[in-house]
Design goal:
The protein is mainly alpha-helical. Helices cover 63% and strands 5% of the residues. α12 links the parallel β2 and β3. α1 packs parallel to α3, α2 crosses α8 and α2 packs across α9. The longest helix is centred in the first third of the chain and has 26 residues. It is elongated, with a radius of gyration of 24 Å.
Length: 325
């Protein structure tokens, strides 16, 4: 641990820049401890406060800038790709949409302090068409607030940080081993929680081809698109006739579906999580005929593309059986 402090004292700015850039790009590198320790070292003049600040801000701008440009180039798909690696993929998507939709450019500041969203906000800003100048302005302010916050925290508690580092130095590899075990245990626990949440034994699915055939026959169910308003603004794909009701607003609209009609809910989210959650809300309200469109909007778009290439936009294959999970 003393070697770490010595290395940070001699190469503080470079280490902070690399750690911050890696964090902003999405690598599992903890930049915050580097900043806090570096902040403590600035008290004794071992590290330049100005140099470390500039290094961290530059790392933020470059890393987030890469994702911003990716979002502008590839749109909403980039954000969804990043959220797929999260242990809570669908909540990652929903939080990102909610934060950016509610706060706009200011969300780049808020996202710095929200786990699971900080890497997603820049590509979403790019997908929404934020200008380069506006992004750079908000990103610079966000990077400064984030950087100065942890550096000042390190300066305020520099004495306690030195004590902690001294204890860790004495414990050595044992402390690192315990920390690694705790981290692995946490990841496994979150993974188990996610797998349990994905279990949908109580939900019946409708295959896309079944829906396409029903629509072609003029006897289709009522379709409910539970994507957020922000998601629909980012991705204009839609299923004809679908009603757009965000998952968070669904409990307020239950009365309009109390006539016993057949309902099929869908989303454009990892593992149909939002659609499954919406189906459970509808079923809990006593609505008996509720299903989830398997694969959601992506599956519909793929089937439409295949149908258009073959026999037209409503071409169908022999009816597939509706299957429960």
């Amino acid at each position: 641990m003393n070697d770490f402090v010595t290395l940070l004292a001699s190469q503080g700015s470079a280490l902070v820049f690399v750690a911050t850039l890696a964090t902003r790009l999405g690598a599992p590198v903890p930049a915050v401890p580097f900043l806090i320790v570096a902040g403590g070292l600035t008290v004794g003049g071992q590290v330049s406060f100005l140099a470390v600040t500039l290094a961290a801000v530059l790392g933020n701008i470059l890393g987030d800038g890469v994702w911003f440009l990716a979002g502008r180039r590839w749109g909403y798909r980039v954000m969804r790709l990043l959220c797929r690696i999260s242990l809570s993929a669908d909540s990652c998507v929903r939080r990102s949409e909610s934060i950016l939709g509610r706060w706009g450019g200011l969300s780049l500041i808020a996202a710095k302090f929200v786990p699971g969203v900080s890497v997603v906000a820049p590509p979403m800003a790019g997908a929404l068409g934020m200008s380069n100048v506006r992004f750079l302005s908000y990103e610079t302010v966000a990077a400064l607030i984030w950087t100065l916050g942890f550096l000042i925290l390190g300066r305020v508690f520099h004495a306690a940080i030195e004590d902690v580092l001294a204890v860790l130095s004495e414990i050595g590899l044992a402390a690192m081993g315990v920390f690694a075990l705790l981290l692995v245990g946490f990841i496994l626990w979150r993974y188990r929680q996610r797998r349990m949440a994905l279990r949908a034994d109580d939900i019946e699915l409708m295959e896309v081809q079944v829906l396409r055939e029903a629509l072609a026959a003029g006897a289709g169910p009522t379709l409910i698109d539970v994507r957020s308003d922000e998601a629909r603004a980012l991705d204009e794909r839609a299923i004809p006739g679908a009603i757009g009701i965000a998952l968070s607003h669904l409990p307020k609209r239950l009365g309009s579906f109390s006539d016993g009609r057949e309902l099929v809910v869908f989303c454009d989210c990892p593992n149909d999580e939002s659609a499954v959650a919406a189906a459970r809300v509808l079923m809990a309200a006593g609505l008996p005929r509720v299903r989830v469109l398997a694969g959601g909007l992506d599956a519909w778009a793929a089937a439409e593309a295949a149908g258009a290439d073959a026999e037209g936009p409503l071409a169908v294959t022999p009816m597939a059986a509706v299957r429960p999970t």
